[in-house]
Amino acid sequence: MASSIIGGLVADGFPANAIYVAEPNEEARSQLAARFGIHTEVDNALVAAQVDVLLLAVKPQVLRNVAEQLAASVQDKQSLVVSIAAGIRSSDLAHWLGGDVAIVRSMPNTPALVQSGATGLFANSHVSSSQREQAESILRAVGITVWLDDEQQIDAVTALSGSGPAYIFNVIEVMEKAGVKLGLDAETARRLAVQTAFGASKLALESSDEPAVLREKVTSPGGTTERALSVLRDGGLENLFMEALQAASDRAAELADQLGSKN
């Protein structure tokens, strides 16, 4: 995810020589420097001392340790901290960073790898309007961004778009299997399923019509699409998705409780 954001920023025209990255792995560090022309360091604190915006792109399980190492630099520079670590609440991160820190918590998703991501953003009370713009410009380099008024909504974003690509991949997978069962070869079924998902998403993104209207427009009374949709409805598709997203949201909250312990 970090390399995707770096690539998006560079592609957007952000000067590579203004990007500093701390990466403990020597091979990864060399690859990033060669690929993007950015500054790389092995030491997190060295990077934190040189930047005004600090993007934390580490595993949630190690974020507390990293944050405590960076606390002195963040407090000294009054940096904006942008976290893409799942399940870490801004209050816990602020505590680890020494308190009273401008933090933007974000939840991007894996399509950011191809600059087609969707990211939810929440700013704590210490974030200024200009810092909000800085955070948004960083994440907008890899897709769309939406601001949230309540940090608890991050759990809903996690359930909907954070985990969402897996749901779509599962639908594509099932459509491919159904195509094979109906007589298509696997490669043909895969290409048709993937392109159909892409085309439908692109149409929904670019159309002024709501998805429900688009669905109605391709559903002729008494036709094949209507017959298929009736099977999905009778099978409880809507309730299944409601239950699935609720389960994902509940799990996100549970993980935040577990990972955010201040003890």
CATH architecture term of the largest domain: 3-Layer(aba) Sandwich
Nearest-angstrom radius of gyration? 21 Å
DSSP helical segment count: 12
Number of strands: 7
The coarse overall form would be elongated
- How are the strands of the biggest sheet laid out side by side? 3-4-5-6-7
Describe the structure.
The protein is 58% helix and 12% strand. It is α/β, with parallel strands linked by helices and 263 residues long. The model has no long low-confidence stretch (mean pLDDT 94). The protein is elongated, with a radius of gyration of 21 Å. Helix 7 crosses helix 12 and helix 8 packs across helix 9.
Helix/strand layout:
Elements: H1 2-11, E1 20-22, H2 26-36, E2 39-41, H3 44-48, E3 53-56, H4 60-77, E4 80-83, H5 90-96, E5 102-107, E6 117-123, H6 129-140, E7 143-147, H7 153-162, H8 164-181, H9 186-206, H10 211-217, H11 224-234, H12 237-259
Parallel strand pairs: 1-2, 3-4, 4-5, 6-7
Antiparallel strand pairs: 5-6
Helix pairs in contact: 7-12, 8-9
